[in-house]
Each structure stands twice: as C-alpha cells, then as structure tokens.
Write a structure and sequence with these properties.
- A seven-stranded mixed β-sheet has the order 5-2-1-6-7-11-10, with helices on both faces.
- The chain has one domain: Rossmann fold (3-Layer(aba) Sandwich).
- It has about 190 residues and is of the alpha/beta class.
- Helix 1 runs parallel beside helix 5 and helix 2 runs parallel beside helix 4.
Length: about 190
C-alpha cells in the first residue's frame, strides 16, 4: 500500500486539504496528515482547527511514495518559506517519489524554491508570473517527471483522483470516483 503525506501549514486551504485526504484514503492509500509547525493543531485559511496525525519534524527522513502540498494564499506561502518543507520536497524528488501541489502551492512552494527544475506545471491565478522556475501551462492538471500539479480548489477532486490513480491498485481511483459521482478523467 502506497504511503502519502499531506503537509499542512498555518492558513492551509481547507477543502483542498480535506478533499485530497478523503479521496486518497478512499483509494485505500496510507495517508498521514503532517503539521508543518510545532503544534499538531493547525489553523486553516477559514479558521478551522485541524489536528494532524504527526508533525513534519517527527517524520524527518521518512520517504513517502508521495507528498501533497495544498494551496491557500497563506498556507502555500508558509509551506514555501519553511526550510523543512523544502528539504522534504528535495528528498522526495531525489528519491524519485511523487510531489503533488495544488493551487498556489505549485508557484509558492515549488517555483519559489527552484524545485520545478524546468518542469511544466499549473497553478492558480497569475502566481506563476512571480517566479522564473518552471514552465507554466494553462491546464487543469499537469504531470511532468514526478510532479503533479492542479490549478485550484474547483479541481480538488480531479487532482486527488489523478494522484490516487497513479498510486493505488489499478481501477481503484475510477471506481471510487464513480461511487461518489465524480466524473474522473485521468489528466496530465
């Protein structure tokens, strides 16, 4: 069973985080919600308190099959400014593991820290214009050399099912999408 870490920083986007967590667990993946803070309780963009399974610091050195970086105007910037998050992304990329960023995290975490290394990606709004790294693509979901990015909140289900489809047993993502009435289209 594939193991996935969903990283949360203060101000994380509520629905992007929870929808992704829900979909990945429905696909029978082992998912840990990690707080990128000193406290396992992290406050979302809309002031919802969410208790993580563990702190990122407690999982330092652990390699997951994928890490997920949710967006949120504050949350993505906080992830991108955290040296432990940047080190985690680098370690996963070096090991050939998936890095999945939704909404502004593609820009504020990956591009801001030179982690795209010229890869194609998508993100919300004009955030891509703030950074030189990467090749922005005007698309909903983009996959390039182990990096999966999604444009934004309205695509959270497609993003999550696309990641699940790459990690779960064949057909599981499509069956789960059908079960909850999501018109899943593999993209990237």
């Amino acid at each position: 069973m594939a193991k996935v870490a969903v990283l949360m920083a203060q101000g994380f986007e509520d629905a992007e985080t929870i929808v992704t967590l829900d979909v990945l667990r429905r696909a029978k993946l082992d998912v840990e919600l990690l707080a990128c803070a000193d406290d396992p309780v992290v406050t979302s963009y809309f002031k919802v308190l969410v208790r993580a399974d563990a702190l990122l610091a407690e999982r330092s050195g652990v390699l997951f099959d994928a890490i997920v970086l949710p967006g949120g105007p504050q949350g993505a910037r906080n992830l991108g400014a955290d040296p432990a998050v940047v080190a985690c992304v680098k370690a996963h990329q070096a090991a050939g593991r998936w890095v999945a960023a939704l909404c502004s995290a593609g820009a504020h975490v990956l591009a801001a820290n030179g982690l795209l290394e010229g890869r194609r990606y998508t993100c919300s709004g004009n955030n891509h214009a703030l950074y030189a790294d990467g090749q922005y693509v005007d698309a909903d979901i983009v996959e390039d050399r182990g990096v999966l990015t999604g444009r934004g909140l309205g695509l959270a289900f497609q993003f999550a099912f696309n990641l699940a489809d790459r990690l779960a047993e064949p057909g599981v993502a499509a069956r789960q999408a059908e079960h909850i009435y999501v018109d899943f289209q593999r993209q990237g």
